[in-house]
Design brief:
Layout (H helix, E strand, L loop, with lengths): L8 E6 L3 H12 L3 E7 L3 H10 L7 E3 L2 H5 L6 E4 L6 H10 L3 E4 L7 H13 L4 E3 L7 H10 L8 E9 L4 H6 L11 H17 L7 E4 L4 E2 L5 E9 L5 E7 L5 E8 L2 E5 L10 E8 L2 E2 L6 E2 L3 E6 L4 H17 L7 H21 L5 E2 L3
Parallel strand pairs: 1-2, 1-4, 2-3, 4-5, 5-6, 7-11
Antiparallel strand pairs: 7-12, 8-10, 8-18, 9-10, 10-11, 12-13, 13-14, 14-17, 15-16
C-alpha cells in the first residue's frame, strides 16, 4: 500500500494487460497514490487480477470499463488497453473528469491524439503517457551533461536503438502484431522510446524532416516488426533510430556533441532497479602512440530510491493533487507526447512514400 495516506490519488486500472502488473506495484509503492479499483470486461478476470496484484480488500472490482469510469470516488485512471481502443476509452475517462495516465503510444495517429488532448483540456484532467525512463533520476543527470557547454558542447548527432527478440508465439498471437489492436507494431511499442530519447536529447525541438530507412520488416498482416528512420534539423543536427521485435535486447542512446559524448546502454529499463549508469566522455582523443584514449570517459552511477515507474506515478499523482488544489493543468507532458506521436506518424508516412523525406509540422 501507499506509504502515505494523506489525500492519496485514488487510481483505477482499466484492463488487465501484463504491463498493468508493473503499474499496480508502482502505485502501491508511490507515497501519494493508492490502488482503488480495477475493471475488466470479465468480472472473473478482474477478481483474479486484483488478488494477484495486491489490491486491498476495500478496492472495487468491476466487470465493465464503464462501471469504473463512472465511479465518483476514483481520481485517476491508468489505461493500458490496445492502442486502437485508446481514443474511445480515453474520451470516456476525460468526460467523467478522471485524470489519465496512458500507455504509449497514446494513439494510432496525431489526429486521434488531438481528440484525447482536447477532451482532457475541456474537462480539466491531466494527461501523461507511460514513458517511464524519463522519470528516472539518471535521466536528469544525463541531461545536465548534455546541457553543459564545456563538457558536451553543441549537440550534433543522436543514435538510439531499442530491440528485443520475440518468440514465435508472440509473432503469431501478441496484440502488438495485430493490425486491429496495436497496428503500429514495433514502431509504436519500442520505436516510441527511441523517438522520445532523440527529442529529449534535442530539448524537444522537432526536426525539419524525417526519412524512413529502407528495409523495414512487416508481417503478413502489414504490421511493422522492424524499422528505422533518420531525422534532420535546420541547424544540421542528425539523428537515427532503430526498433525491432526481431533482434537481441538492446537499449542504447549515443549522443555526440562538439566536445563530448554520452553513452547509455539500458535507457528504457535499467540493468538494475536500484541504480543506473551512463558514460560521459569529454574532449577525448588518442594518446601519443595512438594506442589508447586520453582522457578516458567517466562512468557515472545514479542510485534510485524508487523504481522509475514509481517516480512516474509519484509525479503524475503530484500533478493531480496540485490540480485538486486549484493549479492549472501541466501542459508539458501532452506537448512532449504529441511531438513523439508526430515523429511516429512521419516515419509511417515516409515508409508508405517509398522512403522519401516527410516534412514535420506541429
Amino acid at each position: 500500500m501507499a506509504t502515505s495516506t494523506q489525500n492519496p490519488v485514488r487510481f483505477g486500472i482499466i484492463g488487465c494487460a501484463d504491463i498493468a502488473r508493473k503499474l499496480c506495484r508502482a502505485i502501491n509503492l508511490a507515497p501519494n497514490a493508492v490502488l482503488s479499483a480495477v475493471a475488466s470486461r470479465s468480472l472473473e478476470k478482474a477478481v483474479s487480477f486484483a488478488k494477484a496484484n495486491n489490491f486491498s480488500t476495500e478496492a472495487k472490482i468491476y466487470g465493465s470499463y464503464e462501471g469504473l469510469i463512472e465511479d465518483p470516488t476514483i481520481d485517476a485512471i491508468y489505461l493500458p488497453l490496445p492502442t486502437s481502443l485508446h481514443v474511445k476509452w480515453a474520451l470516456k475517462v476525460a468526460q467523467n473528469k478522471k485524470h489519465l495516465l496512458m500507455e504509449k503510444p497514446v494513439a494510432m495517429n496525431v489526429q486521434e491524439f488531438d481528440e484525447i488532448v482536447k477532451a482532457c483540456e475541456e474537462n480539466g484532467v491531466q494527461l501523461m503517457d507511460g514513458t517511464m525512463w524519463v522519470h528516472h533520476p539518471r535521466t536528469a543527470k544525463m541531461k545536465e551533461f548534455l546541457g553543459d557547454a564545456e563538457r558536451f558542447g553543441q549537440l550534433r548527432r543522436i543514435h538510439t536503438c531499442f530491440s528485443f527478440a520475440v518468440d514465435p508465439d508472440f509473432l503469431k498471437n501478441d496484440i502488438r502484431v495485430k493490425p486491429d489492436l496495436d497496428g503500429l507494431g514495433s514502431l509504436g511499442d519500442v520505436g516510441w522510446y527511441g523517438i522520445r530519447a532523440i527529442l529529449w536529447a534535442a530539448d524537444y525541438e522537432l526536426p525539419k524532416t524525417v526519412t524512413a530507412l529502407p528495409g523495414p520488416v512487416h508481417n503478413e498482416a502489414g504490421v511493422i516488426l522492424s524499422c528505422g528512420a533518420s531525422l534532420y534539423w535546420e541547424d544540421e543536427k542528425v539523428a537515427t533510430f532503430h526498433c525491432s521485435f526481431l533482434e537481441n535486447l538492446t537499449m542504447d542512446i549515443t549522443a555526440i556533441g562538439t566536445k563530448g559524448t554520452l553513452h547509455v546502454h539500458d535507457f528504457v529499463i535499467p540493468f538494475q532497479e536500484n541504480e543506473a549508469s551512463f558514460s560521459a566522455g569529454t574532449k577525448c582523443f588518442f594518446n601519443d602512440l595512438v594506442t589508447a584514449w586520453t582522457p578516458l570517459p567517466s562512468e557515472h552511477t545514479v542510485t534510485a530510491d524508487l523504481p522509475q515507474e514509481v517516480c512516474m506515478v509519484r509525479e503524475f499523482s503530484r500533478l493531480v493533487g496540485d490540480i485538486k488544489n486549484g493549479t492549472k493543468l501541466e501542459r508539458k507532458w501532452p506537448i512532449i507526447s504529441r511531438k513523439t506521436q508526430i515523429i511516429l506518424d512521419a516515419v509511417r508516412a515516409s515508409i508508405e512514400k517509398d522512403f522519401t523525406p516527410v516534412t514535420v509540422q506541429w
